[in-house]
Specification:
Strand order of the largest sheet: 3-2-1-4-5-6-7
Distance between the termini: 37 Å
Bound molecules: nicotinamide-adenine-dinucleotide
Number of domains: 1
Largest sheet: 7 strands, parallel
Structural class: alpha/beta
CATH architecture: 3-Layer(aba) Sandwich
Helix content: 40-55%
CATH topology: Rossmann fold
C-alpha cells in the first residue's frame, strides 16, 4: 500500500494523545501521502496536539471544541484563510459523564443525556455543515461508532444511545451530501484501550470478551481501524456511503462464545 491519499487533504478531529484512534488515522493518512490538518479541544490540549502534529508531519493544528458554535466558525475561518480544499474529514470525537458510564442507564440525567448527544452525535452534523463548503471536489466524511449503538453493552449506556443517533445521522447526511459527491460513513471499531474507553466501567471485561469470542480471537488494533479510514477517504471507497463498516475482528456476528 502506498500513496492512496496522494494530493488529498484530510482534516482529522479527535487526536488527544498518541493512543487516540484519530492519531492512528493521522499516521496512516500521512503514510498514504495525505496533507493532514488536526484539531484540538481547548487550550489544555493545544501543546500536546501541536507536538503530536509536528511528529506526524501535520500541516496545521487548529482549535475546535465541537460543542461551541464559535469554534466551529473559527475553524471555517482558518480553512478559508488558508484556501484549503478538503477531500476527507474524520470525526473521532465522543464524550459522556463518567457516572453515566457506570450506573444503570435508567439513572441517566437529562443533562448527561443531552451532553452525550451533543458532543458525540450532533457534532457530526455540525462538522459536516462546517466542512461542506470546503469539499468542492466531493470527498468523504467518516465518523467512529461502536457496537453499543445496536446491542446492549454493559455500562456503555448513554454512549450507546448517542452512537445510535450518530449512525442514523450518518444515513441522513449521506442522503443530503451525496448529490455533492460527499460520502458519509461510520467505522464501528472493536474496543481499544484509549482515554475515552477507560471511562466505561469494567472496560477490561469488554476486552476479555472480545478476545474470547471474536472470530479473529484478538483485540482490535487501532492501525487496522486507521487503514479502513484510509480506504473510505481514498478513491477505493468511492461507491460506499451511508454505511457502518465493522472493524472488530468479526465480533458483531457472534451470539455465543466459541467452545
Ligand atoms: N476506544 C474504543 O474502544 C472505541 C471503540 C469504538 C469507537 N470509538 C470511538 O472512537 C472515537 C475516538 O475515541 P478514542 O477511543 O480514540 O478516545 P480519545 O479519548 O483518544 O478520543 C476522543 C476525542 O474526543 C475529543 N473530544 C471530546 N469532546 C470534545 C469536544 N467538545 N470538542 C472536540 N473534541 C472533543 C477528545 O478531545 C478526544 O480527542 C470516539 O467517537 C469513540 O467513541 C472508540
Amino acid at each position: 500500500m502506498a500513496n492512496l491519499l496522494q494530493d488529498k487533504t484530510v482534516l482529522i478531529l479527535g487526536v488527544a494523545n498518541k493512543w487516540s484512534i484519530a492519531h492512528a488515522i493521522a499516521a496512516a493518512a500521512r503514510r498514504e501521502g495525505a496533507r493532514v490538518l488536526l484539531t484540538y479541544q481547548g487550550e489544555r490540549q493545544r501543546l500536546t496536539v501541536e507536538e503530536l502534529g509536528a511528529e506526524l508531519g501535520a500541516d496545521k493544528v487548529l482549535a475546535c471544541d465541537v460543542s461551541k458554535d464559535e469554534e466551529l466558525a473559527g475553524l471555517a475561518q482558518a480553512l478559508q484563510a488558508d484556501g484549503v480544499t478538503l477531500d476527507a474529514v474524520v470525526h473521532s470525537i465522543a464524550f459522556a459523564n463518567r457516572e453515566d458510564l457506570s450506573r444503570p442507564f435508567v439513572e441517566t440525567s437529562r443533562s448527561g443525556y443531552a451532553l452525550a448527544q451533543d458532543v458525540s452525535a450532533y457534532s457530526l452534523v455540525a462538522v459536516a455543515r462546517t466542512c461542506r463548503p470546503f469539499m468542492t471536489r466531493g470527498g468523504s466524511i467518516t465518523t467512529l461508532s461502536y457496537l453499543g449503538a445496536v446491542r446492549v453493552v454493559q455500562n456503555y449506556n448513554v454512549m450507546g444511545v448517542a452512537k445510535a443517533a450518530l449512525e442514523a445521522a450518518v444515513k441522513y447526511l449521506a442522503n443530503d451530501l451525496g448529490p455533492a459527491g460527499i460520502r458519509v460513513n461510520a467505522i464501528s471499531a472493536g474496543p481499544i484501550k484509549t482515554a475515552s474507553a477507560r471511562g466505561v466501567k469494567d472496560f477490561g471485561k469488554i476486552l476479555e470478551g472480545m478476545l474470547a469470542m471474536a472470530p479473529l480471537r484478538r483485540n482490535t488494533d487501532p492501525a487496522e481501524v486507521a487503514d479502513t479510514a484510509v480506504f473510505l477517504a481514498s478513491d477505493l471507497g468511492r461507491g460506499v456511503t451511508g454505511n457502518v463498516l465493522y472493524v472488530d475482528g468479526g465480533f458483531q456476528v457472534m451470539a455465543l462464545a466459541a467452545p
